[in-house]
Amino acid sequence: MVKSAARNTALLLLAALFAGTAHDALAATKKRKTTSKPSLDQPAVTVIPAPDEERPKPGDPGRMPEKFHLMQPGEIPMAAAGAIVIDGFTGATLYAKNADAAQFPASTTKIMTALLVIEAGDLDREVVVTAEDAKVGESSLSIKVGQSYTRRQMLYGLMLKSANDVAHSLGRNNAGTMESFALKMTQRARELGATNTNFRNPHGLHHVEHYTTPHDLAVIARHAMQQPFFRQVVSTQRYAWQLPLTPPAAKAEMWQLTNHNLLLTRFEGCTGVKTGYTYPAQHTLVSAALREGREVIAAVMHDGKREKWEDSMLLLTHGIEHPPKDGKVAGN
Question: Among 26, 94, 322, 324, which residue's CB has the most CB atoms within a 10 Å radius?
Answer without folding.
Answer: 94
